[in-house]
Amino acid sequence: MGDSDRNADRAAAGADFLEWCLSIKADSPPWSVEQSMTQLLAHESAEGFAPSLAAAARDDAEVIHELGRRPTPTAVAALRAFQAMSTIDTQRDLARINADRLVRQGLPEPPWAATIGRVRVDGCWWAHDEVDETAIVLCAFSYDGEDPHGILALIDRAIEGGLLRELTLGTDPDLLLRVLRQAGDGDDGLMVEPLDPARARQLLEDAVATTDELIEDRQYKPTPVPAAYRKMRALTLARARALSDSVAPPPALPGSVELELLKRAFLDSDAARALPAHDATSRAVDLLVAHITQQAGCHPLRLGPRRILALLGLPALAPEHLDDPDVARVLPDVADAWVSWAAAERGLSADATARLGHAARQGRDQLGSAAGEARETP
């Protein structure tokens, strides 16, 4: 049996299983169908094993094509479920086209087809820290007051795009909101505020994209990863799409002109007054800002403790990798001064400023120690 035959058999088996599952859900409310479909799209075994996301997407595409060839009511139902829940735009369109064609041939729609996914957004909130390294996002939904539910996501914003650390689905949004507010009452300095739905969509979609990329990379296995991530992934993205027709753009990185103005303002500031007034200092600032924007992927003013430590731990900033020994000597002090200046420019609280300063001193000590070792090496 060739690969094409095996693929066809696998697609047929997948379509059979989807039709069977949707036959059981024939008279179920849309919320029940969505909960089943998000688990099916996970392609995850009871033991937690799953194919790569790319392989799962290929399998789903073949199943959609196979369902489109089946003139049965359950095939229409399965296609409508794919249309509502697939994580890939083209697959949702393909499922819709195939379902529409079967309906035009006289096959009935499932009773939930007109309402699945058409949820009401009952509110969005988030808890976040001053330095933008932690975000806890809560979005609440219902079907016009029925089947209320909420998605609570803990996003590690120290990683570019955001990494999902926890992902919770609850059927009592009020309870989830109390949990969120309790997080704001803790000692972590989190602020709880209403969140614009378009911004919530951007935060969730970016975090899913980053998490997908990292968990699929065999060289990087983020810990912890939400245990139910694969099973909640399709539902999370479907609800993100329901939040807003458009996605709020992420905060833009400054352009070249703005970067030059920032660097000039820093060099003219009190924070830089103690730095040596020579070209090596300016070159060190250029190097630091370039790595903040290009490697850390964040605005040069929006540094948090973990970003600072990660940035100053980059091999490219180690003295042995710098061609200019004068830059290597002054870089630790430049980094310390930049962090202090950035905190003042942002108007951070004394506590947040202290945490940034502590991280900067740790990073400076690492760079300084490495610089000393480099100077002692014959």
UniProtKB/TrEMBL annotation:
It comes from the Bacteria. This is Uncharacterized protein. It comes from Micromonospora olivasterospora. The lineage of its organism: Bacteria, Bacillati, Actinomycetota, Actinomycetes, Micromonosporales.
